[in-house]
Amino acid sequence: MRNIYIDGGTKRDLACMVDEEAGLIKLRRIRKSVAGSIANFEYEALLLSLSYIQKRMVSTDKIVIHSDSTEIVRFARQCKSGRVRTLNKLRRRCLRKILQVSLVTSLSIHWTPRKHNLAGRILEYYRKRRIPKMEFIVKWYPCKRCPAKYIQEGDLERHIYNRHIMFSS
Ligand SMILES: [Zn+2]
Question: Is residue 137 pLDDT above 70, yes or no?
């Protein structure tokens, strides 16, 4: 199973996806004029991940896209069951890609809590830092006691202290 995480960040107008196994991060700048609502950033991130899956992933893998947006998860379910109602251009592109990808691979889209969304973690990390490239590889520092992962060792240490040491009896 391959895990892909997606998130949209309005702070720097970015859509982000993370291929967990490869440690690969992909970002895309979203034009403000196109952006409209915050949800559109989430749809752009979904689109980014679906294009990545189409172009780069082996079709035999079982793929799970993780999003902390309930709207995206609901939308994806409706697409797969053919129950989509209102569609703007962006959503129509997402629908088309979901169907294309579902034809050649086992695709599911799951909701994940915000704090465990690796794409959200990346957007948070690069909120004020210089973005190296629109595509790059990171090394994760995983917590051994919960699903949290960080891209800096210091952040992991702080997490372990705050979550698992300070409040444990
Ligand atoms: Zn932890």
Answer: yes
